[in-house]
Amino acid sequence: MAKDAQVVDEVAAEALRQRYRVEREKRLRADGMDQYLELSAVFNDIDADPYAEPGFTRDAIVEDVEVVIVGGGFAGMLAGANLRKEGVDSIRIIDKAGDFGGTWYWNRYPGAACDVESYSYLPMLEETGYIPTEKYAKAPEIFAYCQLLARTFDLYRGAMFQTEVVAATWSAETQRWDITTTRGDRLAARFMVVAGGVLHKAKLPGIENIETFAGHRFHTSRWDYAYTGGSPSEPMDKLFDKRVGIIGTGATAIQAIPKLAEAAKELFVFQRTPSSVGVRNNKPTDPQWVTSLQPGWQQVRIDNFTALVIGDQPEVDLIQDGWGEMLFIDTRAPATNAQHEAELERIDFENMERVRTRIASIVKDPATAESLKPYYNQLCKRLCFHDEYLPSFNRPNVTLVDTDGRGVDRITASGVVVDDVEYPIDCLVYASGFEVMSDYTHRLGFDPIGRGGVALSEAWTDGPSTMYGVHTRGFPNLLMISTVQGGQALNFLHPISATARHVALVIASCEAQGIETIEPTVEAEREWFKVILTNLMHLGRYNEKCTPGYLNNEGGGDLRSARAAAYLGRPFEYIDILEKWRAGGTFEGLEVTRKV
Ligand code: NDP
């Protein structure tokens, strides 16, 4: 793999080790994950849906249904699509949003795009017959694709939007889930599939006096175009006389900042930890390449992307982008000996040196360039790739306010304070991310009540317990698609697609075989947790040295949070486990009751 030489000798390596340690220590906080606030904790209106049809009403639905799917993002849609393919027709999909799309419904901030190439990310391209217009499709195109997917599999029939589940209770009498909603619906479902999303519950930074800010403010996942002007695809034309502040410099901010920089009179970027930003090199889809595609091409490409980014070093690189270049060797892999460990460390250092050198070559002001340089191992934070982010800091209207790892000191009615300097702001954008490791039911927004009236939050007091992240004991016919003990990959859609298909096939075979209920055994859950824990241990040593962030539980963690971890082995292995289990055909690990 051709790369610019970035030699890190032992003297430089020791200096980097020391620097990484210092940067990590600056950022460790006793309050860990508790530092963040919920949107609703501070603002009544900030969590409202700015995109939904106002005043929408409909009659309450009272119905017996085979499957209720909670969540209309990709996971829920793919479960629905696969159920339809398997001939399970009686489906309801519930979502609080006004349409399908999940992440892509909510995240309409300017510049939003998928940073995983669209040919691997957008699911079922061969079934829908769609080819993305560019390598890294932008959010409006992805949102439109969600609608196409829904139309292709007739998912609008049965969709219940602007509707939230209030309660879901297992009835031993009817052997169904009784589900009630905010619109007065009462559904009795044989199966409940919960596809509640991974990064969907927005959080705010816990900054002193955050509630006192009197200017305009919103979270990136609730972009207020009425205030900023423009749209996801048009420039914001109402910010030309506004001083805008943005808090956060993660993957979302990296995409939004160039657009804000173009539109605002002044832009202040408040940074706690810089992101690693590599070359993007987006390009339109080549029509000749499209004509060369053979049936089955997409799965080959999806597998190739994942193989490239987990260090499998496949012979062919179909993707040819920065992800594969940075992650061609898995620098977190368990080292076989001291020499191997040193080699992995050297590669990690050299990759990050390339990122830092690129910053210095683009950002003209040396102090700003220095502040933008990330000093941590490459997988401590999500890698970013963008070609307009760094040049934004060369604009005269853009100021980087680096907080040297502390975060913003406090907020006042009229601005943001860092190092005793108040930056006056008209509009404050929170690019502060989403809850990732908070309790599953908290993120879900409801607490399923299983056998014997036990709530899921209660059953999981000591942390989640599942079989494959899909089934949990005490909750018959509940099937989950999530990262809690479930599959995870850089291309989220890879394990999500496999799990959604698995869930649909399990339900379809229950229907075909007259199976009434399924529920995992204690033993099956115990065995699965051993698998989760083994894979988690591999990452422990790497994370120990990392700057805090949501990928490492803000530098904290205990057995309870370990129980909420995803399957962190190779995504192919997770998918293989599901496939082998299905091929076994014996419902191993599940207690099964049959219809009489
Ligand atoms: P992140 O959680 O990654 O970023 C939040 C940012 O807010 C960080 O820079 C954080 O700093 C900063 N922050 C938090 N508290 C404070 C504070 N008190 N003062 C100053 N700054 C603060 O959220 P994002 O929305 O950026 O991204 C979340 C995830 O969404 C990504 O990791 C990715 O998985 C996904 N995503 C995917 C995209 C795609 O194209 N596929 C695009 C965008 C997002 P610190 O780093 O120090 O904690």
Describe this structure in words.
There is one protein chain. With 596 residues, the chain is an alpha/beta fold. The chain has 21 helices and 21 strands. Strands 2, 3, 4, 5, 6, 7 and 19 form a seven-stranded mixed β-sheet that branches. It is globular and about 75 Å long. The chain starts with 9 loop residues before the first helix and ends with a strand. Residues 27, 113-116, 199, 205, 207, 247-253, 270, 272-273, 382, 403, 407-408, 431-434, 549-550 line the site of NADPH dihydro-nicotinamide-adenine-dinucleotide phosphate.
Write the layout of secondary structure elements.
Layout: H1 10-27, E1 37-38, H2 39-42, E2 62-70, H3 74-85, E3 91-94, H4 103-106, H5 118-121, H6 125-128, H7 139-152, E4 159-160, E5 165-171, E6 176-181, E7 186-194, E8 203-204, E9 216-219, H8 225-228, E10 243-247, H9 251-263, E11 266-271, E12 277-278, H10 287-292, H11 297-309, H12 322-327, H13 338-362, H14 366-371, E13 384-385, H15 389-392, E14 398-402, E15 410-411, E16 415-418, E17 421-424, E18 427-430, H16 440-444, H17 456-459, E19 478-480, H18 493-513, E20 515-520, H19 522-544, H20 559-563, H21 571-584, E21 590-594
Helical stretch tally: 21
Total tally of structural domains = 2
Overall average pLDDT: 94
Radius of gyration: 24 Å
End-to-end CA span: 62 Å
